[in-house]
Write a structure and sequence with these properties.
CATH topology of the largest domain: Immunoglobulin-like
CATH class of the largest domain: Mainly Beta
Helix content: 10-25%
Strand content: 25-35%
Strand order of the largest sheet: 1-2-7-6
Shape: flat
Length: 176
């Protein structure tokens, strides 16, 4: 018979906690100091979305791009921002220590909610910021109409027994 060292469950949880902290510390360190892990050459612009009573606003940061580098489309309830951030001229005679800027083509797509006027969308581009204004439709007011109540017919059109004013039962004919 062999002896097995007993360790409390708390020891295992502490060990797991230390391992997880080490993992996330290394992960954060890589994000901050080892740029190639984060920057794989794909450019993805940041977009803020907010709204007021009349409009939905999309604000995209596109530094280094001009209006001609960006294409904005809307189709079947999807707003698409498409473009390309081109790399500046390469310097073959330089040794790079760090390359943090991203370049390349990008596509950002957003599903628009029901109740917007797709045909009235407007956009402005200024100082590397694209602001898109999506107007909302007027909310439809609920219509109310009175429904006439008939008596004496089942859903299958047969007569229903009802009482007349004297308290006697009478039969009404089904309407054809």
């Amino acid at each position: 018979m062999s002896l097995i060292k007993w360790e409390s469950p708390r020891h295992e949880l502490d060990s797991l906690g230390r391992t997880m902290r080490r993992f996330f510390d290394d992960f954060d360190s890589n994000l901050l100091h080892f740029t190639p892990l984060v920057n794989n050459g794909n450019y993805m612009p940041a977009v803020d979305i907010n709204e007021d009573k009349e409009n939905i606003y999309f604000i995209a940061e596109l530094p280094g791009l001009s209006q001609n580098d960006v294409k904005l489309t809307v189709s079947e309830g999807t707003l698409t921002i498409r473009g390309e951030k081109k790399r500046e001229e390469e310097h073959q005679d330089r040794n790079f220590y760090r390359m943090e800027r991203s370049y390349g083509e990008f596509v950002r797509q957003f599903t628009l909610p029901e109740g917007v006027k797709e045909e009235d969308i407007q956009a402005d581009f200024k100082d590397g910021v694209l602001e898109i204004v999506v107007p909302k439709k007027e909310p439809s007011k609920p219509r109310e109409r009175e429904v006439q109540i008939r008596s004496g017919l089942h859903s299958d059109g047969k007569a229903i027994a009802s009482k007349n004013g004297n308290g006697q039962e009478k039969r009404e004919k089904a309407m054809a």
